[in-house]
């Protein structure tokens, strides 16, 4: 057995202590609303969630999966439709609830990828998830662009298309 001199042991111990006290702690992800707010391509979605009165739901405890339309999706909606929707919180809420599933749904998991499934939404409808031959997942006809973005109260997935409300 090789002994390490006392000064070397102290230096190693000091190094470990410095790392332990200065290394950032692994922070748990924020809520769905906080995670969405941190993404630069979801500013319109976050604004819509707040206008529709869904901010509390996406900030509270629970398990949800949100298929969030990106800013590019919102830009594809004709401006007059988008503006009218943003001025009508009840209509906006009903539309957004079509993209929120009241359960944590992982697109990719150790047990395998999500294939074809019918996902119930908080709005009372269903979203059809389908896996294409080239392994693109679509949900409600929209391609999932970024999947399984973890939040403390669910999963966030971004989608590339939504039907105009």
Task: Sum up the structure in keywords.
165 residues, alpha+beta, FAS1 domain, 7 helices, 36% helix
Structural description of this entry:
By secondary structure, the protein is of the alpha+beta class. The chain has a single domain, classed as FAS1 domain. The chain has seven helices and seven strands, in the order ααααβαααββββββ. Strands 2-1-7-6-5-4-3 form a seven-stranded mixed β-sheet. It starts with 5 loop residues before the first helix and ends in a 6-residue tail after the last strand. Residues 11-24 have low confidence and may be disordered.
Summarize the structure.
This protein has 165 residues and is an alpha+beta fold. Helices cover 36% and strands 22% of the residues. It is globular, with a radius of gyration of 22 Å.
